[in-house]
Amino acid sequence: MNCLACGGERLERGLSVGEFQVLRCRTCGLGLTAPPVPPTEIGRWYPEAYYGKENVRFNALFELLTRWFRRRRARVLRRRVPPGAVLDVGCGRGIMLEGLRALGYAACGVELNEAAAWHARNRLGLDVRTGGFLDCPAEAERFAAVVFWHTLEHFPDPGQALARARRILKPGGLLAVALPNSESLQARLFGRHWFHLDVPRHYTHVGTRALETLLARHSFRVVQSDHFSLEQNPFGWLQSLYNALGFPENLLYDLLKAPSARSGTAREHPWACLLVLALLLPLLGLALLLTVLEALLRRGGTIEVYAVKS
């Protein structure tokens, strides 16, 4: 295997996670899940509970927060690109797209999960197609912006996805990418216990250097890079701390889900659940402080990058 970002041949063994390993490029730092699960078989790693009934993953309170954050993403994009056609790759239920439409955009989406795409099309009336992004028909230079919000790492070859995005973007069009930062303080400190690692659903594990390499290879110019994410990074610290302390894997995450999306971990470990809740306030305070620190050091657990088509 060669590196998918820089083409380098110097890959070294990294973390072991169950039956998988993360191979790391010694040149740009890109991580590759090995062996990669064939796209025809990856579906078994996304059971029905992964999405939840009607694609509602969290309990009522966190559903409200999720909706608020996704509509906030739409407002953030509004400050960076004037109204036009926008494509959200992996749009889920279409909540961000609904926000973009309200701001005057021609909002389009592509989504693999049929239940999520059905909600976006039939409940929200959005233009959303079911299927893979690489196979989805789209005119060249049609879109003012293409968004990969925590979806690029789910492509076996992110370079192919970026090449496709470049083809359908207008000259000077905006590419918005958010993903877990494999060079973050969280990733380095917690290793295989890092919440955002998510092997094997994440085919690649991208850091700042690897992402910049990928974008440059496909003629994108970075205009902004953010390491502070209130939506993702405090919880990344919090759940990773619990994992490292020996609690059942991602137990807090399971507690926050809707009943239809739970794995059963919480039900099997009632005493661990009580201890998780007892430690929640002090560990949350620590997580918020660490979120500010990692942002100041430019080592955020997740990164948000905005680039334009050169």
What is the structure about, briefly put?
By secondary structure, the protein is of the alpha/beta class. The chain has 12 helices and 11 strands. The chain has 2 domains: 11-237 and 288-309, Rossmann fold (3-Layer(aba) Sandwich), CATH 3.40.50; 238-287, no CATH class.
Task: Give the key terms.
Rossmann fold, 2 domains, single chain, four-stranded antiparallel β-sheet, alpha/beta
If you had to describe this structure to a student in words, what would you say it looks like?
With 310 residues, the protein is an alpha/beta fold. It folds into 2 domains: 11-237 and 288-309, Rossmann fold, CATH 3.40.50; 238-287, no CATH class. 37% of the residues lie in helices and 22% in strands. The protein is built from 12 helices and 11 strands. The chain has helices at 48-51, 60-78, 95-102, 114-123, 158-168, 185-190, 208-217, 233-244, 251-255, 265-268, 270-278, 280-296, and strands at residues 11-17, 20-25, 31-34, 85-89, 106-111, 127-130, 143-149, 169-180, 204-205, 220-226, 302-309. The strands form 2 sheets. The chain has a 7-stranded mixed beta sheet with strand order 6-5-4-7-8-11-10, with helices on both faces. Helix 4 links the parallel strand 5 (106-111) and strand 6 (127-130). Helix 8 crosses helix 12 (280-296). It is globular, with a radius of gyration of 19 Å. The two termini are 29 Å apart. The relative contact order is 0.14.
